[in-house]
């Protein structure tokens, strides 16, 4: 009976270890995906800021042109 208990315990431990290994791989994949998402967000934010700067310059140019044209 004790032998059966030990065998069952070893089998359960082996299954648990395999599960933990898979979870560890999954956590690494999730971390990689989140890192890629953060890099994408940072890039989009930079592009949006650059777009806003260019828009402000263009709007100022348009105001100056209107002033010149209305003289």
Textual characterization of the structure:
- The chain has one helix at 2-69.
- It is rod-shaped.
- It contains one helix and no strands.
- The chain is 96% helix and 0% strand.
Summed up:
With 71 residues, the protein is an all-alpha fold. 96% of the residues lie in helices and 0% in strands. The longest helix is centred in the middle third of the chain and has 68 residues, at 2-69.
Low-pLDDT segments, ≥5 res: none
Number of helices: 1
Order of helices and strands: H
Shape estimate: rod-shaped
Based on CA atoms alone, the radius of gyration comes out at 31 Å
Q: Look at the structure and give the mean pLDDT.
A: 91
Helix content: over 70%
Secondary structure category: mainly alpha
How are the secondary structure elements laid out?
Elements: H1 2-69
Provide keyphrases for this structure.
about 70 residues; about 0% strand; rod-shaped; mainly alpha
């Amino acid at each position: 009976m004790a032998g059966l208990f030990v065998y069952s315990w070893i089998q359960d431990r082996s299954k648990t270890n395999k599960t933990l290994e898979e979870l560890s791989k999954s956590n690494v994949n999730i971390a990689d995906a989140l890192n890629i998402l953060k890099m994408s967000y940072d890039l989009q934010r930079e592009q949006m800021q650059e777009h806003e700067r260019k828009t402000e310059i263009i709007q100022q140019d348009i105001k100056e042109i209107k002033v010149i044209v209305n003289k």
